[in-house]
Design a protein that fits this description.
The chain is built from two helices and eleven strands, in the order H-E-E-E-E-E-E-E-E-E-E-E-H. Helix content is 14%, strand content 38%.
Length: 239
């Protein structure tokens, strides 16, 4: 399995915000049936209801009681197993003390298992995200009224880039419990497994996640913007 190359923090911001902007500017042409392109919201946007404190961030807990709090946005292309996603994270001890903060970048889509659309779960008309830390802090823009949320399980290879200390590879599972949900994945949330760490963060805590089906033109625009940012940061272009 290829190793992910280090990625500058400013470049990660440049990947996350274009994805965010494309989501917000997408028209109501988003369809229930598509060719396997999805936007992913990880405890962000309209999921972060000000009246529901447990919605954001998404939390994964270990048996020892410490946790990772995460938020982010991005795109998935299921047929090509391509992912462009980024966000922020905070590692806390069992007492709630902050052990580490940083940003994360998705590098590979291992798998995506769709549970099907949830026609009655309508997207709200306001964007209210407050993950509490840079770079996705307090954005409030209009969102399209047409997207139909889709349940599913995405398994991603990501890199954790702390603001201090060495980077780490990890596997992130994002589970949206909408549609025809398997019994064993009925709890919505995230799980995290860090390479070289004996503790698996395999218990879904609080937090909401969602996948939104997208037409090809929206996904292509997001991918093109993310690729340009990557090249500007010194990474070779990817086919």
């Amino acid at each position: 399995m290829p190793r992910l190359k280090p990625f500058p923090v400013l470049a990660i911001v440049g990947v996350a915000l274009p994805c965010l902007a494309m989501l917000l500017c997408a028209s109501s042409a988003v369809a229930q049936n598509n060719d396997g392109n999805f936007l992913v919201l990880l405890a962000a946007g309209f999921l972060c209801d000000p009246g529901e404190a447990s919605a954001c961030p998404a939390t994964a807990k270990s048996n020892q009681g410490d946790s990772y709090e995460m938020t982010g946005v991005g795109t998935l292309e299921v047929r090509s197993k391509s992912v462009r996603a980024a966000g922020t994270y905070t590692h806390r001890s069992h007492r709630g003390n902050v052990l580490e903060t940083g940003v994360w970048l998705a590098g590979e889509l291992f798998s995506f298992n769709s549970y099907g659309p949830a026609p009655n779960a309508l997207a709200r008309r306001s964007w209210a995200s407050d993950p509490g830390q840079f770079p996705l802090k307090r954005w409030r823009w209009p969102v399209p009224s047409g997207p139909v949320p889709t349940g599913g399980l995405a398994v991603l290879r990501i890199r954790l880039l702390p603001f201090a200390g060495p980077s780490k590879n990890a596997v992130l599972q994002v589970n949206c419990a909408l549609g025809d949900v398997p019994r064993e994945r009925s709890v919505e949330g995230i799980r995290l497994s860090i390479e070289g760490n004996a503790s698996d963060f395999s218990e879904e805590g609080s937090g909401r996640v969602m996948f939104l089906a997208t037409p090809p033109d929206v996904s292509a625009a997001v991918k093109a913007s993310a690729q340009k940012t990557t090249q500007d940061a010194g990474e070779p272009p990817k086919n």
